[in-house]
Design goal:
This protein is mainly α. It has 24 helices and 4 strands. Helix 2 packs across helix 8 (156-183) and helix 3 (43-49) packs across helix 4.
Length: 478
């Protein structure tokens, strides 16, 4: 008689387990994104606190560069924690990253300003951002791999798409917390000390998530590999040491991850920068516009992730890159139109700004709809990509191999987008000139991906198609 453990399909108990896995993984990942993006959401204020006040444009660019430093560190975190995840375990690696991220974010909330400690302030801030980048570099890959390795193959896109919502959800919560704190006190108090509260709240969110994650078990597929002595002894070498593996990483980087990164950041984060700093939409209005658009767009990640299980990951991601590249420029022109004319700043006799420049007649409804339209392309490129990345690499080196191309793309192509775009705008005087960076990268990814990318969900091993079976076998082996 056949062993029931080796033949029965997923049970109600297994379904319950996968939702517990998703909740625990997504909760921690969302908090890490929250921590990471508070900095960018408050960039305009941070630039006045930790950098010299003589040149506001230079201070803001320095803030964006510091923000970008966290992105630059992400690939290194991917290597460090990817190696740990492939050798020691998925759970341990992204538990450590959560603690590092939470501690670093809390420190920003306690950091003295430039007026108090001078040049030491931006140096410490830069160091903290590096720590945050290292932590995030190890977090996302672990969460995506962990959920994927608990998921049945025919629903892997659907289940991992919940991890894909966490970046947008973390950004949404950061904006919601910032707006809530801002509205709870006078503007002067928020600018003076209230901006620290969203950073300090991180310690409580992290404590909750750490408690949840300590209750998690290891990935069933990794447990099986470890029990059989098949884990990689050198994940970095095994991931990038052969011509075939290196080719796979490069195709994934330029044919999927790079375009996803710029479409994501142009559709969400740069949209906020553009509204606030270029179009001069009032602080609360701009944050509410983007927050509502993000909330409306969240179901799109799950929709496209689930759709990729049925029709394949590649065609959805390639369509998202092409349509996103075509839509970005006219959509931003629409944002400019509905933001309306800018009322010039009013200064006193000494040249000090009394009333800042502001878009006094902005249409928040149309601005929200336009940002939401960008979320459609974001959902197409981002919803299926976790499942795609996990399936592109063998389980023994998956944490390392998934993390590096993802974080190189999001750290460099996407993370530096606000700095690159803002610098190009400042240099040319054309408020749309910075958009050619994401448009060009998205088109490159469409071409490379169309020519060289293969649909990963069509080529899975028997072991990876049945994670519930692996769980039973790992338990028996233990």
């Amino acid at each position: 008689m056949a062993n029931p453990a080796r033949t029965m399909p997923a049970t109600v108990e297994n379904t319950k387990t996968i939702w517990q896995v998703i909740f625990a993984s997504a909760m921690g990942t969302m908090i890490e994104w929250y921590d990471f993006y508070i900095f960018g959401s408050l960039a305009a204020i941070i630039s006045t606190k930790f950098f010299p006040s003589g040149d506001p444009v230079a201070a803001f660019l320095a803030t964006l560069a510091t923000f970008g430093a966290g992105f630059a560190a992400r690939p290194f975190g991917a290597l460090v924690f990817g190696r740990i995840g492939d050798m020691v375990g998925r759970k341990y690696a992204f538990l450590v990253t959560l603690l590092i991220m939470g501690g670093a974010t809390t420190l920003i909330g306690l950091l003295p300003t430039y007026d108090s400690i001078g040049i030491v302030a931006p140096i410490i801030l830069f160091t903290i951002r590096i720590l945050q980048g290292l932590a995030l570099g190890g977090e996302y890959g672990g969460a995506a791999v962990y959920v994927a390795e608990h998921s049945p193959h025919n629903k892997r896109g659907y289940y991992t798409s919940y991890i894909q919502t966490t970046a947008t959800l973390g950004l949404f919560i950061s904006l919601a917390v910032i707006v809530g704190v801002r509205l709870s006190m006078p503007k002067e108090a928020f600018n003076e000390w209230g901006w620290r509260i969203p950073f300090l709240l991180s310690i409580f969110l992290v404590a909750i998530s750490v408690y949840i994650r300590t209750k998690m078990s290891e990935s069933p597929l990794f447990s099986k590999l470890k029990a059989e002595g098949k884990t990689s002894k050198s994940p970095i070498k095994d991931s990038f040491g052969t011509k075939a593996q290196l080719k796979t990483v490069l195709v994934v980087l330029f044919g999927a991850a790079a375009g996803q990164a710029v479409v994501w950041y142009t559709g969400q984060f740069y949209a906020l920068f553009f509204l606030q700093n270029v179009l001069k939409v009032e602080f609360v209005t701009a944050n509410v516009v983007v927050s509502v658009a993000l909330l409306l767009g969240l179901p799109l990640f799950i929709f496209f992730g689930a759709l990729s299980d049925k029709i394949g990951r590649k065609k959805i991601m390639m369509a998202g890159n092409l349509l996103g590249a075509l839509a970005i420029y006219p959509t931003y022109m629409g944002l400019s139109y509905f933001a309306g004319p800018i009322t010039p700043a009013v200064t006193d006799a000494a040249g000090k700004v009394v009333t800042p420049a502001i878009a006094a007649s902005a249409n928040p409804v149309m601005l929200t709809l336009l940002v939401f339209s960008l979320l459609i392309w974001v959902g197409m490129v981002y919803g299926p990509i976790a499942a795609f990345l996990v399936e592109a690499f063998p389980a023994q080196i998956r944490y390392t191999s998934v993390s590096l191309p993802y974080h190189v793309a999001n750290g460099y192509f996407g993370g530096f987008l606000p700095l690159i775009a803002t610098s190009v705008v400042a240099a040319t005087g054309n408020i749309y000139a910075g958009l050619w960076w994401p448009i060009g990268i998205a088109l490159m990814t469409f071409v490379v991906g169309t020519l060289f990318l293969k649909d990963t969900n069509l080529n899975l091993t028997e072991a990876e198609m049945h994670p519930a079976r692996n769980e039973t076998e790992a338990a028996q082996a233990g």
